[in-house]
Amino acid sequence: MINRNLPPADQDPRNPSYSFKDMENKHVVNTDIFNNYIKNNKVKKIFSGTLWSEGPAYIPHLDTLVFSDNPNNRILKLVNGKVSEYRDPSNFCNGNTIDNNENLISCSHGGRCLYITDDNLNTEVLVDNYLGKKFNSPNDVCVKSDNTIWFTDPPYGILSDYEGYIGNQEYNGCYVFCYNPDNKNLEVIIDDLDRPNGIALSPDEKKLYVADTAENLRHLYAYDLINGKAVNKKLIYDFKPFFSDGFRCDKDGNIWTSAGKAIKCFDKNLSLIGQIKIPELVSNCEFGGKEGNILYITATTSLYSIELNQQGARFGKK
To answer: Tens of pLDDT along the chain (318 residues)?
Structure first.
């Protein structure tokens, strides 16, 4: 790893977790439905040593989980229970997912672009501008069954040199985009959010979920997807003082989201049904393992997991 000589997470005000180090989540009464999803209540710490663990993405044919350590400018991988470096430097990659061919799609704060990486670690830029103007710093991403790539573009990677490189906003907004790699078409999907962050599709792809992590909002929203347009915006939950950063859906359409020092779960009707407390501020989560029933959780300095009686949306389609 390239040593950037950065302070520990709990000593650096630039770290997303710093302001929350003395806060705890309020108690949530878990529903019976949620309790039935939990195979056991043991949250396992797999690895520790990151500054801001983010962007977990499971690659099924490799049985590999990759995740970002953004401030340390690297991507790590979990293979056979052991964590090692996947790409170093990563150009400050943050969110990751896979496309329909199980290539890795990464949001690069440093490159202000989306990367695609194959099994041999060959990496190419997919898209890096909107109308000739640089993106801010693509943050999180999901892929639809028609191969389109949906991603958020807040400015976190250009505000300082902690998660990227200091830069200017060139198109004067923070949009949610949809990119079609087949015809190279880039479309603005949402243009009225302050800090669009996490993004996910419902299993039937009729809903789009997007978090806004602006200081005065901390909201998670649901949109109906109709003819490729995101309409009928609906507030799911106000997470203040914490925030919803990254999230995934399971095969039944429940949303499992980072929520402060916890994972919160909302059913497909957008009702809160349960919470799993985690020792650190959580950034994101991902379903993985050969059966798709391991929930991997990235949380500040560590990677955690918990075994479920439930599968991720991708696995439920098999």
So the answer is: 556 789 999 999 999 999 999 999 999 999 999 999 999 889 999 999 999 999 999 999 999 999 999 999 999 999 999 999 999 999 999 999 999 999 999 999 999 999 999 999 999 999 999 999 999 999 999 999 999 999 999 999 999 999 999 999 999 999 999 999 999 999 999 999 999 999 999 999 999 999 999 999 999 999 999 999 999 999 999 999 999 999 999 999 999 999 999 999 999 999 999 999 999 999 999 999 999 999 999 999 999 999 999 999 999 775
d(CA 28, CA 25): 9
Contact call for residues 239 and 220 (beta carbons, < 8 A): yes
**Which H/E stretch holds residue 154?**
none
Q: Which two tokens stand for residue 35?
A: 């309790």
Contact between 201 and 208 under an 8 Å Cβ cutoff? The reply is yes
Domains detected in the chain: 42-316 (2.120.10.30)
Tell me which DSSP letter residue 232 carries. Answer: E
Reduced to 3 states (helix: H, G, I; strand: E, B; else coil), residue 292 is coil
